[in-house]
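Much of what follows relies on a compact textual record of a protein's fold. The record below shows the convention in full:
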Amino acid sequence: MISAGALNSELINKIAQDFAQATGLAVVVVNIHGEEISELFNFTLFCLRMRQHPQLSDRCRMSDRCGGFEASKSNQPCIYRCHAGLTDFSIPLVIAGHLVGFVLCGQVRLRGNNGVELVDILSVDDRWQADPVLMDAFHSVPEMDYSRIMASAELLQLIVENCLKKQINFVVIRDQQQLPETGRPARNQGPHDSKMKKALRYIEAHLSDELRLEDVAAHVYLSPYYFSKLFKKYQGIGFNAWVNQQRMASAREMLCHSDWSIASIARNLGFSQTSYFCKVFRQAYQLTPQAFRLQNNANYEGD
């Protein structure tokens, strides 16, 4: 699993800061979970307050994640409308064949649409409009023409492709006292520790693909039989069970903080059949995905 520290470098912060200053746009880099792994550059007061709001911050994070994944489908910039109605764009960050995060920019109000149809990542949630402080901050958000937003997105893509991918150095260590993926106390490094870390990073980056044990084993140059035994030794459960466990954790988050249909969530987590996804989810949480979403929405509205 790639941790937040994996992309936290002076290079990313420097490029994000320079781009924010040059364009006047807000910029942040997030990992594939939507967690911020760079500083927040040029953020509007409105977005800062939204991200600090106890009930609305999760929607901001999910909007970042969904916008990033939408861009990763075509590996091109994606200009979209966030859950609060602002215009953003995302650039997928793919290094050594792995999707490791997204560069997100924007936080502007679109000045006239001229027939432009933005991608709606999440349905616009207008509950924040009941907060006069947020409403006042929203009116101070700058406006920008679509043509300038598009030009900025294309420029940032060139920067990402020609700078970040070639120069970034990875640090995939969260804690010297723990093995990053298992959370178990550190032990003497075994001969296959690095292979297992590499395999877990590969799984994390390809949860939306069809993941076969044979392919992951080949990725770390081990036979399927030996890799299967090694995986269970390290993780405590079998390969398929582990993959489903990670997918179900992502499914819970998407059900809580996105408006994607059950079928869309299933597809984005590598399930070719929605019925099988529902079966696995119910086995994990004793609820169908739809029932889980309804329960979560009821809890949210009751807060």
Remarks:
- The chain has two domains: 4-167, 242-302.
- The radius of gyration is 20 Å.
- The mean pLDDT is 80.
